[in-house]
Design goal:
alpha+beta, NADH Oxidase, 4-stranded antiparallel beta sheet, 14 helices, 43% helix, 15% strand
Length: 383
């Protein structure tokens, strides 16, 4: 809770800040360049599968957990596993969102392979569907076939695709651009839908905001997110994952004690209320939405949804559109049940809604941190 003493701390911190030149303080406490080195190193490894993997790890994924573990098999294959310690048991109790993140990884892997003429033959869950949660069995096996694919235009957007959480401009997204998003995301057994400004978008703004509030006001789900927040440059550099809160003002708030994890999960605190107030205009600014639906017949359907989302996100980047997943209403914890049913009744068409994102125009953002290729590699299988 903000107190007089806390305000005095912040004022005092302002004196400290003033003692630095603006440039010096920004360099010392600005975004971590080191935590984003994987974006610069993508495509540079000598071994061809590692080159493809260095592109794949730039894939979108829930809470930036980067839950991918990879074992190289022989000379032409690999196996993808989920790092079970990187799941989200409170907000994603059945690991559906984590599997979607694995699907996005596989799609970028396939696109990167095609750039060099390799077809990626992907076998989802080769040892069976794990339920109700993931286990140690592989998520997918991949074999690379030289000469089996042509370069994919989507490859050019891998390095410029970023989730954009900014406030979106009061500018409508043209119907032809929304149609291109639908075409890009309607793959792998998935149907992509969109809505420009109008009645459906208005209802989705309301539902998605209520979903955000529900997740925030449910202690255990909010705590899961807060535990994964990386506050300040040092934490971002150390962990290279999670939800990033960095920059000079965040650093100053942390240094003065104005920003703490305890306050962030306390609904009575000023920090908590400010956090909600920060996201309220973001939700209200959504001028268009896109979502993905499928029959959800198996875990493979979740992988397909992730692959389709990667395609949609890459197309958005190509078109100069910002997108931001706002899928809390699709989460399957008990407190979200009413909103889950409401959003499915609105846009589900009798199918499973796998992803829901806002789309539009916004100031650009820098890449999210990545842990780097070696963090994902397991020992190679011995033949």
């Amino acid at each position: 809770m903000t107190t007089r003493r806390g305000i005095l701390k912040l004022v005092g911190g302002g004196v400290v800040l003033a003692a630095f030149s603006g440039t010096a303080f920004y360099v010392a406490n600005g975004p971590s360049d080191e935590a984003r080195s994987a974006w610069r190193e993508a495509g540079t490894p000598d071994e061809y599968r590692r080159r493809f993997l260095s592109q794949a790890l730039l894939a979108p994924n829930p809470h930036n957990r980067q839950p991918w573990l990879v074992r190289l098999d022989g000379q032409d294959a690999l196996t993808l596993f989920c790092d079970l310690d990187r799941r989200l048991p409170e907000t994603d109790p059945f690991d559906r969102q984590i599997v979607i993140g694995c699907g996005a990884f596989l799609e970028l892997l396939s696109i990167a392979a095609a750039q060099e003429g390799y077809a990626a033959e992907i076998t989802p869950f080769p040892e069976g569907d794990p339920a109700p949660r993931l286990d140690a069995r592989p998520v997918a096996r991949v074999r690379f076939v030289a000469g089996g694919a042509k370069a994919d235009p989507a490859f050019a957007s891998i390095g410029i695709r970023h989730t954009n959480r900014n406030i979106y401009a009061e500018r409508e997204v043209a119907s032809d651009l929304l149609a291109q998003l639908e075409a890009a995301g309607s793959v792998h057994g998935v149907i992509a839908r969109t809505a420009g400004e109008g009645a459906v978008a208005a209802k989705l703004r309301d539902i998605t905001w209520r979903g955000h509030e529900t997740e925030s006001l449910t202690h255990r789900t909010m705590k899961e997110s807060v535990d994964l927040m990386r506050i300040g440059k040092a934490e971002v550099t150390r962990w290279r994952d999670g939800i990033v809160l960095e920059g000079p003002m965040m650093e100053l708030a942390r240094m003065t004690g104005m920003l703490s994890r305890e306050a962030m999960i306390d609904p009575k605190s000023e920090v908590f209320r400010q956090g909600l107030d920060m996201y309220r205009p973001r939700a209200a600014s959504a001028r268009a939405f896109a979502w993905l639906i499928n029959d959800h017949a198996s875990r493979g359907s979740e992988l397909g949804a992730g692959r389709a989302y990667a395609r949609l996100a890459l197309k958005a980047a190509e078109l100069g559109l910002a997108i931001h997943p706002w899928s809390q209403t699709l989460q399957e914890f008990s407190e979200m049940r009413t909103l889950y049913e409401e959003v499915h009744a609105l846009i589900g068409e009798g199918k499973r809604v796998q992803m829901l994102v806002r789309a539009g125009y916004a100031d650009p953002v820098i890449p999210a941190p990545r842990r780097g290729l070696e963090a994902h590699m397991l020992a190679e299988e011995q033949s």
